[in-house]
Amino acid sequence: NAKLDWLSKFLIGSRWLINRSGLGATNHFESCAFIRSAVGIRWPNIQYHFLPAAMRYDGNAAFDGHGYQVHVGPNKPTSRGSVKISGNNMSDAPDIRFNYLSTEKDRDDWRTCLKLTREILTQPAMDAYRGDEIQPAIDFASDETIDTWVRQNVESAYHPACTCKIGSSDDPLAVLEPNCRVRGMSNLRVVDASVFPTVTNGNLNAPTIMAAEKAADIIRGRTPLKSHAPYWVDEKWGERQRVGTPIRAAETN
To answer: Which of the following is catalytic: 28, 49, 71, 159?
Structure first.
């Protein structure tokens, strides 16, 4: 955080422009993780990004002093928002409603996110680097307290999707045919993150590229290649959430 004054920013930017090195050569998401939050969940459902600075990217000022932070969130939220036309003029801004935290499952998932994150950061391995908690710095004993903090601080991470869902003709929310054509219109296709039927389990960039490649094959009449990419699943996912026991465990239920 000591490198966030205007002179340091100028020097960091100049060094990157000149030789592509220094602090400007990284996005500062130095490590990440995907974890399963509970027994019986087959795939990771929580995503982490770890940063060596204490700041926000919503326009608010960074915190004073040195620090680090963790970005965390549930990857498969069940709350559904909407994007609607607000007028007859195509220049009119649409009516966008995210409806975050509108389901109890999403609220419960966020409680688990915060509790597991605090558990990670309170392990002995972090003792030498951990000072006072800046945020959330609240008592997790009350679900209402956690819910209030999340509502006041949750961010979109700029990964909205699923506003032009692809699906079958009997799905009232599906506006696209399987070939990405807009139902009821000719010569119009949509190919971006909005076509996903549900939110993908992770960042949107790679799935969006995949959707574009698939759409390109459909438009050009090509048979797509089959995927043989390997993947790993804990063989005991129905019996355990992790291997071993944390030295300082958190209660997540």
So the answer is: 159
